[in-house]
Each structure stands twice: as structure tokens, then as C-alpha cells.
Design goal:
Largest sheet: 7 strands, mixed
Strand order of the largest sheet: 4-12-11-10-7-5-6
Low-confidence stretches: none
Helix content: 25-40%
Shape: globular
Radius of gyration: 21 Å
Bound molecules: pyridoxal-5'-phosphate
Strand content: 15-25%
Number of strands: 17
Structural class: alpha/beta
């Protein structure tokens, strides 16, 4: 009997070690990792420079406290400011905590403007975490069910619909911010159109709202830029990062600029572990390696290569709705719920994920090589075609956004 709480439906495999894009289980079977711990192990496994930086830091100092100056935190904040164009960083330990900080900033901002019950616009199919506030911001009944009463102060609209946001602006004087994932990860790799962010920025400017971007999954180089917003040149007021930033050492960051700057004062917010020397050294090493090994360019090239490979091989397969994504955030939408493909891929030595019931999600490590990318396509294609041939009925799954 396990004493671990039953919060995950776990696959019957335990990994012992990893190297690059490969993992080995306890029986010595090798797996090609096309998921990277759900966009966490962006450098792949056991990257020698990362191991060396972390080992050195472990031998010096792991944790002090935010009661003291932390040189690594200052250095990481400077580095993040340089790559993001943002001004201030709050360090925590996960994506949901980074989003909690963003939501608290929005409320402080609202109160400073004299709004007593500030509200934040959030999106359908969004995922922002599993704390009480972030699950309330999340657009999934599955995530929320059983945890009512939800935190109030959220107004939900469809993703990629500027008209819906404008309508809220006309009718709701309590709104102080918009929180959005430019590429929804858990929601099914749903992508916003090119002008969406600019449109949101204009609406936010016109209404004095904060533009807040959840880059927990899309950030740290995964889409080919440090942040997904950098594809458009539009700047947010708040952004959040976590997952890939420290390559598996827990970290989260809430980045603020413009009107969101300077809102927190001592006592408003905090974290015991947030931004400790070990996590910051891991993040600094991650950023250095991504930059010096040109991993963002590789993410673009390999992402295009994988999408093109699937598009070519699945072009005539009935039941494949779309292959989409940006960089190494890749979704293959079927018209049929396909969770069982995860276990079949595992048997075939490939780690993948299915999200939103019918979207196969791939988030491989950024250094994935061409022959490994070829193997992802070669291993997964027959599984998809066989699965659809066996299971497809006249009952297609619901159309996603
Ligand atoms: N935001 C996004 C976009 C995510 O994808 C996730 C996790 O999947 C989170 C927030 C929550 O992050 P964490 O699990 O680190 O709390």
C-alpha cells in the first residue's frame, strides 16, 4: 500500500536516470522523452554544465532566508530583467504561486485605484494552477469541482476573442486586469491570432487595466523566444514563469513592469523558499545554457520539423483535426478522446501526454536532435493511425477553441 496521496493517476513506470532526451527505467528500458517533465526539463536530463553548476552551489550554500540579501537572487532578477524588458521580480516556488502573486498585484492595483471589489478577466480553457485562487481562475470545471466556494472576482471570456473582452470593458467597472496564456498548454495547445496581444494591450491601456501573461508553460525559450509575448513586440505589465526556468529545481517568478511596479511593500507578500541560492543558481545556469547553446533556435527548427513531419504523415488520416503549436509546444488534435495513446506510447518507449481529452501534447527538451525528432514522428504516427482506425466511431469529440 502506498502512503502517497492519491492525486495522480500514475503510469506503471519509475525512471532511474536520464541523459539528454532519454530516460531509463528500473529494468533498463530506454524511453525517448517528448514531454520533459511537462515542460520542466528544458535542457534535457543531466546536462553536464547544469549538473556542475548545481553541484558547485550545493557545496557552498542551499538556503539562507529572504530576511537577508541573496546575491544569486539579485543576479537572477537582473538577468530576467535584461531578457524580459520587465522591471521587478518576485521569486517563489511554482507556477501557481507565481500566478497568486500576479492576482494579488492586480487586487492591490485595483484598491489603489479606489475599486473595492477588483475583478480579473480570465479565459475559457485556461489553466493557472491548483491553489484555491488559481483554480478559480482556471477555466476547467474538472479542476474546480468539489472545491467550491471558488474565489470570486473573475470574469470569464473565450480565448482569442477581443470583442468579448471589449464587451466586459463596457459593462464591468470592477475589472482591473486581464490574465491570459498566449498559448494554452493544459487547455490543448490553443493559440491566439497574431493581433490578439496588441488588441488586448490597447483595451488594457484604454481602461487602465494590467495586462498579465501566464508564461509558466510557454516561457523560458520553449516557443523560440524567452517569452511567447516576444514574438509580437507587445509588453505586458505582469508575466509569470516557472516550469523550465530552473530545469527541475522548483522555482516560480512573477515579473512586473509599468503600473504593476512598486505595488508590493514589505509584509504584503513573501515565500520561505522563494529565490534561494540553489534555485537561483539553477535558473542562472539554465538561462546561460539556453543562450550559449542556441537552444531557442533549435526549438524553432525542431518544432517546425516535428510539426511538418506529422502534417505530412497524417495528412490523409481521417480523425486528425490539426497539428499546431509554436516552437517545442506541439499539439495534435484528434476528433476522438485519446488518453489511451499515452500508455501505448510508453510501451513503445516514447513519453507523451494527452490534454483536454483529445489533444496529444508534445513538449520535448529544447536540445532535441534531428534524429530524435524523427524518432518522435516515426514512433507516434503508427500509434495514432492504428488508434484512429480501431476506435473512431460516428461520435467525434467536441471541437476545441
Ligand atoms: N500556469 C500554467 C500555464 C501551467 O501550465 C501550469 C502548470 O501546468 C501552472 C500555471 C501551474 O504551475 P504549477 O504546477 O507549478 O503550480
Amino acid at each position: 500500500m502506498t502512503h502517497v496521496m492519491n492525486t495522480y493517476k500514475r503510469l506503471p513506470v519509475a525512471f532511474e536516470r536520464g541523459e539528454g532526451c532519454w530516460l531509463w527505467d528500473r529494468e533498463g528500458k530506454r524511453y525517448l522523452d517528448a514531454l520533459a517533465g511537462i515542460a520542466v526539463c528544458g535542457l534535457g536530463h543531466s546536462h553536464p554544465r547544469f549538473v556542475s553548476a548545481l553541484t558547485t552551489q550545493l557545496g557552498k550554500l542551499v538556503h539562507t532566508s529572504n530576511l537577508y540579501q541573496i546575491r544569486h537572487q539579485e543576479e537572477l532578477a537582473d538577468r530576467l530583467a535584461a531578457i524580459s524588458g520587465m522591471d521587478e521580480m518576485f521569486f517563489c516556488n511554482s507556477g501557481c504561486e507565481a500566478n497568486e502573486a500576479a492576482l494579488k498585484l492586480a487586487r492591490l492595483y485595483g484598491h489603489a485605484r479606489g475599486i473595492e471589489t477588483p475583478a480579473v478577466i480570465v479565459m475559457e480553457k485556461a489553466f493557472h494552477g491548483r491553489t484555491i485562487a488559481t483554480l478559480s481562475a482556471t477555466g476547467s470545471r474538472k479542476v474546480q469541482a468539489g472545491f467550491e466556494p471558488l474565489v470570486g472576482g473573475f470574469v470569464r471570456v473565450p480565448l482569442d476573442d477581443l470583442g468579448a473582452v471589449r464587451k466586459v470593458a463596457e459593462n464591468n467597472r470592477n475589472v482591473v486586469a486581464v490574465l491570459v496564456e498566449l498559448i494554452q498548454g493544459e487547455g490543448g495547445i490553443n493559440i491566439c491570432h497574431a493581433g490578439y496581444l496588441q488588441g488586448l494591450r490597447e483595451i488594457c491601456n484604454a481602461n487602465q487595466w494590467l495586462l498579465m501573461l501566464d508564461e509558466v508553460q510557454s516561457g523560458t525559450g520553449r516557443t523560440g523566444k524567452w517569452f511567447a509575448y516576444q514574438h509580437s513586440g507587445v509588453m505586458p505589465d505582469v508575466a509569470t514563469l516557472a516550469k523550465g526556468l530552473a530545469s527541475g529545481v522548483p522555482i516560480g517568478v512573477c515579473l512586473a513592469a509599468g503600473a504593476a511596479k512598486g505595488l508590493f511593500k514589505p509584509g504584503n507578500h513573501g515565500s520561505t523558499f522563494g529565490g534561494n541560492p540553489l534555485a537561483c543558481a539553477a535558473a542562472l545556469a539554465t538561462l546561460d545554457i539556453i543562450e550559449s547553446e542556441s537552444l531557442m533556435a533549435n526549438a524553432v527548427a525542431m518544432g517546425n520539423f516535428i510539426r511538418d513531419g506529422f502534417r505530412a504523415r497524417l495528412a490523409d488520416v481521417a480523425g486528425v483535426r490539426e497539428v499546431r503549436g509554436a516552437g517545442l509546444m506541439i499539439g495534435i488534435e484528434l476528433d476522438f478522446p485519446c488518453d489511451e495513446l499515452v500508455g501505448q506510447a510508453l510501451d513503445a518507449g516514447l513519453l507523451i501526454n494527452v490534454t483536454n481529452d483529445n489533444v496529444i501534447r508534445l513538449l520535448p527538451p529544447l536540445p532535441i536532435k534531428r534524429d530524435e525528432a524523427e524518432q518522435v514522428v516515426a514512433l507516434l504516427t503508427p500509434l495514432i493511425t492504428d488508434f484512429l482506425a480501431r476506435n473512431r466511431t460516428a461520435q467525434p469529440a467536441a471541437q476545441t477553441a
